[in-house]
């Protein structure tokens, strides 16, 4: 199981397959396990590298203030550690935020960017936003990870036939370190790079579920601000699209990456 050290923190990553490097970045409170339905398919075509960002999975959980910029530094350090050429980066939710941060801070490291159910800022702009953020902040502090996992499982996978996916969330969520989880949640609130989107010139695919937490229109609005991006809406999906629609997601991602690979550089 490979690890590398960056900024006094031991970080865990996994590698599969050969070819152009493709880095997968998970969401808040998750780990490399986010991608269990992607790795077998993607690794037939690419050198797939999935990372546990600090505070998550098998990586260290230092007692410090976390930031999206700091998580992006970890990704950049992994690319440097492995001496990789420009990579395809895929990030979901908080991993998408990290992807945006890498793209504006280290544009030379990316060959393409795929953002899944995420956005370039988490800013409070309306009273409704403030209420939502405050509720999540308070609930995350007062409620056990066990209870959050059960609630999240029902929210992400509400259908009777999704019972196994629900159980995965219920099992995995309590394995988080609560302090690191809260530090990561704090890193998200108030973060944003929207004013720097013009820096992201690599081909960009934005994937949104039709039932994600934020509306499709919000994704379309920021896609319009990106120089080289398109939006894919996945129907009958929620926040964990790679898990609830794996085949559709994998095919769409491979088609996008294949087109990028064909472009002259």
Automatic annotation (TrEMBL):
SUPFAM superfamilies found in the cross-reference section: alpha/beta-Hydrolases
Transmembrane segments: none
Key words, A-Z: Hydrolase
GO CC term, one of those recorded: membrane
Annotated ranges, domain AB hydrolase-1: 21-244
An MF annotation (GO) of this entry: hydrolase activity
A Pfam family hit: Abhydrolase_1
Database matches in InterPro entries: AB_hydrolase_1, AB_hydrolase_fold, AB_hydrolase_sf
Name by which UniProt lists this protein: 3-oxoadipate enol-lactonase
